[in-house]
Design a protein that fits this description.
The chain is of the alpha+beta class. Helix content is 32%, strand content 22%. The strands form 3 sheets. A 7-stranded mixed beta sheet has the order 9-10-11-12-8-7-13, with helices on both faces. A hairpin with a 3-residue loop joins β4 and β5. α1 packs across α3. It is globular. The mean pLDDT is 92.
């Protein structure tokens, strides 16, 4: 797991009444927090974690955190082998700063287990949950973490070969990390030369917060402005669902900067290719691709039914 952004959101008040999803990474050299289990024959539907003694200590310390900070609530958590996710609700404005709460939690964990100088890496990652339905989506996302990890570790070919996926009643060829479709923060990207400066700045601020929060940008990135922003977003650690009209052949590998993005699990390509489409991109097709990006971003995906397009490697 790779977390690119541990910086705080520059325009958010971290003393406000709010809900966050927090990620803390294990310090290198520290024993695993937990061990995964699950049955491959069942596509790991029974996946879960068994805590190590250190993982149990972390859970006990996390559960005790509201006793130290009345006015907060721990909503959901998952202790993975190398990181901790938890949802924390700040119920009273101006009483606590989020950073003070996280610092106290990590310090309590360190004090309770003097075997290690530090259990967690320095710093933490926060996602600010603002949109309606995002909390429930994040709960499900956290709980599904063990299953996603086991599929990635035991069925890597799923992410290295073109697959057929039915979306909204239509088949698409996809390639890459299809779990990005299940991320709770999918944001469509569309930049127009007709935007005023204030409209453009509002869009860019929304996109930058998605990147900072480790969400996913969704777009065909059609015009030059969108392509330039895509390149900048990749450099800043973005996850992308990239819609393309190009076909995805059997031995497909993304080129240039998209290859590194795919190799890091930060890219899903969805092809809208059809043999009957015109050689040049039409306005109607552009509008349809942007509409698909909007629809993907507004959907909550359950089980994804995937089928190999070619013979399994």
């Amino acid at each position: 797991m790779k977390i690119y952004h541990k910086t705080r959101c520059p325009y958010h008040d971290y003393r406000s009444k709010c809900i966050y999803m927090i990620t803390l990474m294990k310090e290198p050299g520290v024993e695993p927090f937990s061990f995964l289990f699950g049955t491959k024959e069942q596509r790991f539907q029974d996946a879960g974690v068994r805590y190590s003694p250190l993982g149990r200590l972390i859970v006990d310390t996390l559960r005790a955190l509201p006793d130290r900070f009345p006015g907060i609530r721990i909503n959901r958590y998952i202790v993975m082998p190398d990181h901790l996710h938890f949802i924390i609700e700040i119920l009273e404005k101006d009483r606590y700063h989020l950073g003070d709460i996280i610092s106290r939690f990590t310090r309590d964990c360190n004090v309770a287990n003097p075997k290690y100088e530090r259990i967690f890496e320095h710093g933490y990652h926060d996602r600010i949950l603002r949109r309606r339905g995002q909390l429930n989506n994040m709960r499900n996302y956290i709980q599904d973490n063990p299953r996603r990890r086991l599929i990635k570790e035991n069925m890597p070919w799923y992410f290295k070969t073109p697959l057929l996926l039915n979306l909204f009643g239509k088949d698409y060829v996809i390639f890459g990390n299809f779990f990005l479709l299940k991320d709770p923060d999918l944001t469509p990207v569309r930049i127009s030369s007709k935007y005023s400066e204030s409209e453009l700045n509002a869009c860019l601020a929304k996109y930058e917060e998605t990147i900072r929060g480790a969400g996913v940008l969704v777009s065909p990135f059609i015009n030059d402005q969108e392509k330039a922003y895509r390149n900048q977003a990749i450099a800043n650690g973005a996850n992308l669902i990239y819609l393309t009209r190009n076909p995805i052949p059997e031995r497909f590998k993304p080129s240039k900067m998209l290859h590194d993005l795919w190799n890091e699990g930060r890219l899903l390509i969805i092809s809208t290719y059809h043999p009957s489409q015109p050689e040049k991109l039409t306005r109607q097709e552009s509008l349809a691709m942007n509409a698909l990006a909007e629809k993907i971003s507004s959907e909550t995906f359950g089980e994804l039914l995937l089928h190999p397009l070619y013979k399994r490697p």
